[in-house]
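Researcher: I'm preparing a figure for a lab meeting and need a structural model of a single chain. I don't have an experimental structure, so a prediction will have to do for now. The sequence is pasted below. Please return the structure as tokens so I can convert it later.
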Amino acid sequence: IDLTGSLEALRLEVLRPLFPRLDTFAGQVSAEARVTGTLGAPRIHGEARLQDMKVQSPGLPQGIDDLDARLVFSGDRAELTGQLASGDGGADLGGQLALTDAGWRGEFNLHGRNLSVRQSEDFTLHYQPDLTLQIEPDRMHLIGTLVLQKGFIWIKELPEGSVGTSDDVVFVDETGAPETTRSGHAVTADI
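Model: Understood. Here is the structure written out token by token.
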């Protein structure tokens, strides 16, 4: 095999009809690569870039406001770097992929800050992920931590017959200020 190719600034908007549930699907992809070797052991040199990607939909718990990523190929290896912005938060992306005799192996990382999930007007969680996806020829393994920084659940009205509120629950108003609680005991945790 000895192939060379390039893709200049493909606008993702042209692919939006393939994703009818998305309100926004934008950005651009560029790539240039040379593939040599055999079908069983290809060698790829070049890079692919994703710039200014935006994804928004009412069905998504949080959209992507800006995603930039770069995948650099060096023979039988590839390295990913990137950043994304989402709401008031963001994340760094990284990882590497290698073609071994057994197949593809790799590890990809996501280190996030102040990301949020908003399921509805009544439910929002703010979290900080530090996740690693390990890829092997016969399996994938996701490891890491997901720190829940804060959450807001607005309860408009409890249905009749609901269980009473636990003494360790803290209610906050719309500004985030704690409302008075029924218990005078402090609650601490080490999680």
